[in-house]
Structures are given as structure tokens and as C-alpha cells.
């Protein structure tokens, strides 16, 4: 395994594993370098690059309020680095928030991107209604009430049903050191989502530019299924895969299944 950092992306922490066609993976909210390690290990025959997005340790935070535009610049710089090292265009994979970022990146400039794989981007969650959630979350974190902060995210962002929320409430309180470190990334993502547009029709420009994969768990909660339906309508050429028996988080729970889907997509 190679572990490296590159100044070209503002010091973002990056890990590179394997050999073959290059794949760049963008993790979701609450993740980091560790998030897609299992998927990277299963995706044999490819050179997989993973980064800790801005706001997620050990990468630095944002300069001011975060936006998708600022993160796209990070991804474009990283894509240029991968292309320079591998002398090849790059398969771009995004998971959750990382899939929304991948959409923004490809729409801004598809050059250098070989294909686009999107795993449950929260396209219908975005919008100014999240400003209130962001304000409340910041306040709870500042007060050190990490249990309430976690509960807020579960209710308002992850849309966890009440019976499961009740079960989660019996768990031990979050470790305050780890929770405070993770909160920086959540604030970062909520800022960008609150400033974003929830209309999936704006991605129609990708119809003829790239091969696109839309993937989701069969039992993922709303608004993920509705968002994936809307994306499929905007991108009718996209290949669509629904993983039976999976909920949100299949990349961690069933990395072999996800890797097989990616391998089939890349060989089509």
C-alpha cells in the first residue's frame, strides 16, 4: 500500500492501493480514509485512490463556509494528480455525499473522468431547509451534547425511523474526542448541502458525456429511493442497480457485492 499526501489538493490525505485502471473514491458524510477500505480491498485489478475529504481528519478543514464548488476544485486537482501518475483517465466513484460531489465534479468538467458511479447521492435532501439543522447541530456540538447532536442527524438527515431511534438511544454516549473531530466533517457537509439545489433535472448535461452507474440498497430509506428515481429520469442512459437485502451503507456492509457491480460496470 502507498500512503501519500499531495500539496496539489491542499494537503488532502490520500491512499492508493492495487494496480490497474485508476479509480478515485469519494466517501460520504461521517467517513474518512477508513470508510471505503473494504471496497478498495475487494476491487482487485484496479488502482484505487481514496481521500479524506476536506474537513475530515487528517485532511485540513475548509477556508470559510464550505460549498460544493470549493470541493470540486479539490477533486479536480486530485483527478489531475491521478491522471499524471497513471497516464489514464479515471473512474470516479461517489458514496452518499461523495456521490453528490462526484455529480458536481463531472457536471463542471467531464474531461479526465472515464466513468461515473453514484451510490445513493442525497439529491433530494439538499436545500436551505438544512440551515436550521446546521444551526442546531453547531449549537449542540458547542455545548458538548454529542448524544443530542447525533440524534438530530439521525432524525433530520438520515431519516432513521422512531423504533430504531429508540434502540439507538440505549447505546453508550459517543466518545467526546472522536465526536468533536467527526462533527467538523458533518458541519462541512451540511454547509454545502444547505447551499445546494435539490432539482435532479440539472444533471441532464451528463446524458451523453459519460457512462453512469446509479446504485442503491433495496431497503434504503426515503428520500434515497425517490432521489434515485429522479436521477434515473434525468439520466435515462444510466445503468441502474438495486442491491437486494441492502440498506444505506452497502459499501461497508457488503463491499464484495458493490465491487462486483463496479467490475461489471467497468467491463460493459
From TrEMBL:
Residues of the AB hydrolase-1 domain: 22-243
Lineage of origin: Bacteria, Bacillati, Actinomycetota, Actinomycetes, Kineosporiales
Pfam families xref list: Abhydrolase_1
Species assigned in the record: Kineococcus rhizosphaerae
A cellular component annotation (GO) from this entry: membrane
Signal peptide: none
Classification via PANTHER family: AB HYDROLASE SUPERFAMILY PROTEIN YCLE (PTHR43798:SF31), MONOACYLGLYCEROL LIPASE (PTHR43798)
TM regions (residue ranges): none
Protein name: Alpha-beta hydrolase superfamily lysophospholipase
Keyword annotations of the record: Hydrolase
GO MF term list: hydrolase activity
